[in-house]
Amino acid sequence: MFPPRLIQQPIIWELGHKFELVTNVRQASVNDEIGIVCLELEGSPIEVEAGIKWLRTLGVNVEPVELSTVES
Amino acid sequence: MSHSQGFMKALKCRECGHEYALGATHVCEFDFGPLEVAYDYDRIKAELTRAAIQSRPQTMWRYRELLPVAGEPSVGRQVGFTPLVKADRLAKRLGIRELYVKNDAVNYPTLSFKDRVVSVALSRSVELGFKTVACASTGNLANSVAANAAAAGLDCYVFIPHDLEQGKVVNSLVYGANVIGIRGHYDEVNRLCAEIAGKYGWAFVNVNMRPYYAEGSKSMGFEIQEQLGWRVPEHTVVCMASGSLLTKIHKSYQEFTKLGLVPETKWKIHGAQATGCNPITQAQKAGLDFFKPQKPNTIAKSLAIGTPADGFYALRVMKETGGSGDDVTDDEIREGIRMLAECEGIFAETAGGVTVGVAKKLIAQGKIPADSSAVLCITGNGLKTLDAVAGHVGQTREIRPSLREFEALRVADQPELVNA
Residue ranges of the domains in chain A? Predict the structure, then answer.
């Protein structure tokens, strides 16, 4: 989930260049409030970890596709 | 049609409609959309009549054709058919003509609606050959999985945040479950659970078993309709954590209508959240069809999901049915708990206070008209969240064992008694 201030930034492109990762958008919904992108990442576990860490430092909210596995 | 599938046809992606075999899987491989169980409604219509339902034991399994198990359920056979209470005193207090409370605070065996979803998930897990079941939970779900797994002789792993209150942990440990505290952030717990489900091939009730698990919630809606005398209520107020229960209550009304078990009618479904965690109602009130994630801060811990998995679908149901949504503060939640307890003798957990508090608001706003009829879905027992109300419901007053002191106390309460 991308906060509004990042919507003009080509984050997925950067992710694929900074890290050894193949990115594939499976589903997305972007408007001026928020961007929600279902992104498939293919690469070594170390690169995937690093990529996710980088996204988080930018303020992108990253979750596995399962969403909330923790329930009340 | 193979009868090893019961009345189920397939798992179907809610986004693209792609179909999958009825295994332990929950996400579409194409668009990552959630999978849902598809049924053979023509066959169900031929078998599931009012008479057939009424001839069966009073449990949630009397609607078995519409629940995702292939054969007879093996876990949680006694679950459900909780009372639908005609709440005249609460109706008067809230200012509505007719009000009912669907009381899952007394659901069997662990006093919350989770027993419904868990008994379905575990029955299906047994059918699929699983020996170990698991969940990640902070309360009701963990208790229910631990209890129902114990009764079914299944190995059980419960994952919890490492700093969860001891009282909540005991309610899972007592059943002999393996309770694992995880030191980490919420999203790290999410990912670990997904990884464990994949690697160990366990049945994670709300991960790989989620399509079956979620369907169990429909039984609450089926019961409401039968207990109302085979009709859909005009208004239903449902509290929302992931938003799944609200969507499944709606589905239960659609299914009974489609099968001709209830007359066709219009209904409105209203969603209730705590103001300290209101991603869904905030979006609903702003007229948006998506929500913004939040960091929860509310006494309604059982509703504290900041990124609700079914939020999008819950918003759609509220919009499609013409329902609304609202949220209440911690004080309003406590007031809701007290109103339900004082008027109807039902002690609900904080989520129930949310439902009552929001119903009060919606009635006052005219979104649920005063001359209409409504059902409030109460999902858990107040004994589970005593801390939330302790210190807010008055105090005991002490006297010596003396009649004079007792009478003095009564006069202090009611000065008009002096001359009585």
Answer: 12-19+36-63
Q: How many helices (H) and strands (E) does chain A have?
A: 2, 3
> What's the pLDDT band for B274 if we cut at 50, 70, 90?
very high
For residues B252 and B187, membership in a common domain is answered with: no
Residue B63 falls within a domain, yes or no?
A: yes
Size of interface A-B (CB pairs under 8 A): 87
pLDDT digits (tens, 9 = 90+) for B378-399: 999 999 889 899 999 888 999 9
pLDDT of residue B272 exceeding 70: yes
Angle, alpha carbons B108-B114-B115 (nearest 5°): 35
Mean per-residue pLDDT for B40-45?
Answer: 97
pLDDT, tens only, B351-386: 999 999 999 999 999 999 999 999 999 999 999 889
ipTM for the predicted complex comes to 0.71
Same domain? B142 vs B279 = no
Tell me, yes or no, whether B120 and B192 share the same domain.
Answer: yes
Task: Say whether A71 and B307 touch across the interface (CB within 8 A).
Answer: no
CA nearest to B303, candidates B346, B251, B246, B342: B246
Q: Is the CB of residue A49 less than 8 Å away from at least one CB of chain B?
A: no
Domain extent, residue B35, equals 3-76+114-213
Q: How many other CB atoms are found less than 10 A from the CB of residue A68?
A: 22
Q: CA–CA separation, A52 vs B376, rounded Å?
A: 42
CA-to-CA distance for B372 and B394, rounded, in angstroms?
33
Q: State the Cα angle at B231 between B284 and B220, rounded to 5°.
A: 60
Report the CATH number that the domain containing residue B160 is assigned in CATH: 3.40.50.1100
Residues on B contacting A at a C-beta cutoff of 8 Å = 15, 26-27, 30-33, 135-141, 159, 161, 186-187, 189-191, 193-194, 204, 206-207, 241-242, 288, 290, 292-293, 301-305, 307-309, 351
The residue that leads in pLDDT, A34 or B397, is B397
The pairing of beta strand B203-204 with beta strand B178-182:
unpaired
Of residues B141, B288, B307, nearest to A72 (C-beta): B141
> Mean of the pLDDT values across residues A8-18?
91
* Residue A56, min C-alpha distance to chain B (Å): 12
